[in-house]
Every structure is written in structure tokens, then in C-alpha cells.
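comment on this one:
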Amino acid sequence: MLKIIDKIQKEHVFENLDVTDKESLFQALSAKISAASSQDATAISDALHKREDEYTTNIGNGVAVPHGRIKGYGRTDIFVAFLNAAINYDSDSDEHTPVKIIFAILSDEDDPKDYLLNLSQLFFLVNQKDILDKIMHSTTYVQLEEALKNVKAMDEKYEVEKQIKFLIELERADIQIRAYELYSATHSKQKSDAVLDEYKKYKETLSAKIDMNVLETYTRIKNSKGDALSKITDCKCSACNVAIPKMTVNEVRRQNQIILCFHCGKILFATD
């Protein structure tokens, strides 16, 4: 499922990176990547800064995904950095935005398709709580490798469980796209379409992983109700607040089939 896992090589994992803010991170990261890839450190730094100037690459949960493209790079590489201490990644923001783990992507300027595909898979990887928990407890390549092995094993889980996760991520991608479009419509300084393209490619990648019948059901519900998913909280549908029978709750938790709320018709899911 996640082919990017095989792209994370030992020489591309940097342990104990001692930095204090985003700028010192980019300097240290560019130097490390330069040594590992034989690329010019300045060109790497410029590519990362160019993308970062458009919109922050902090995706939350202690993870940032700085990325950029360099003409003539010829491939797509993923680099991982474990920071000695969390940094406030967006120091110019009113909010505290701690980041402890970095996944950086470099690719060729002339191959945006491969770049966006790897970026979307990486977004999916680090937005799965069960996967992220294992990664966040890693501080070395050996520990990360073990966590990623567990991820591969998880790929053998029930297909419905994966479908639900894809749908949750698809809904999240839609929210991000709407938020970005709203921002662009209400601010005089327009940002580059690159960020929007990333989210749209992410959405395309997710859609391709979802069973056609499941996706059709999701789309139909979304078109008629605005949102298609509803989380079960305290044995109630969070969308309509109607009590869900215990037997149905257990079936949703088993994730052997797609189950709709009998009252509002949205797809039910549970995270506990």
C-alpha cells in the first residue's frame, strides 16, 4: 500500500539533530541532505524555503514535512530527521506549533506527478494515529525501521478497516481544500496553487485506494448531506445524536462491513 516506506533508507535518516527553530533546522537539514545526496546545500535550502514561503509544512501532531523540487534532481528521495528537542516550527504564528520529527522530500522539478504521489502517501502515513504513535516513539533508524515493519504488517488487516481510514482521510483532504480555497478568496495576497495541487493529488491518491462501491456510497451521502462520516461517541451518532444499538456499535468496531446510521444515513466509524 505505502510504497514510500521502502524509500526511507538508513543513510537518509538523521538522528539527534540539534536545532532551535525552523531556520536552523533548514540549515542543518540542507547540510545533511547535501552530504547524503551529493546535491548542493544552497540549492536544497532554496527549494525548501521556496515551498515553505507559500504555506507552512507543519502538519500537526509533532510532524513537519518540508519539501521542494530541484531541476535535474532526477528522482524522489525521503529524508527523516529526529530532533533532540521539539521546536516551535511556526514562530511567526500566534499559536505554539511544536515539531519533533521531520520527513523531508526532494524531487525533480520536471516530475511533479512522482513528487505529489510520494507527498500524498507520506501525508497519509503520518496522519494515521496507530502508525504515528509508533513513529513518534522512535529516535533512531533501527527504531523507525521496526515501526515501519509494523506498518507493513498492519497492511494485512481487514480491508474494511482500511476503507474507513481512507474515507476519514478523504474527508480531511476535502476540508483542507475548502479551507485553502476560502483563504485565497478572502485574502488579497494570493498564495501559489502548489499547495492546493498537493491536497488535490492527495485526494486523488486516496480515492484510487477506495473500493468503487464504497466511494460511490460516500460521494452520494456527501453530495446530499454535506458530510458523509459520523463518529460514534458514547454509543450515539455524533451527526444526529441518536442512540446506536450496542450490537451495531460492536459491528462498527469490528470493521467487517460498512455500516450506515439508521437515522441520518451517514457512514459510522469508531476510533476506540
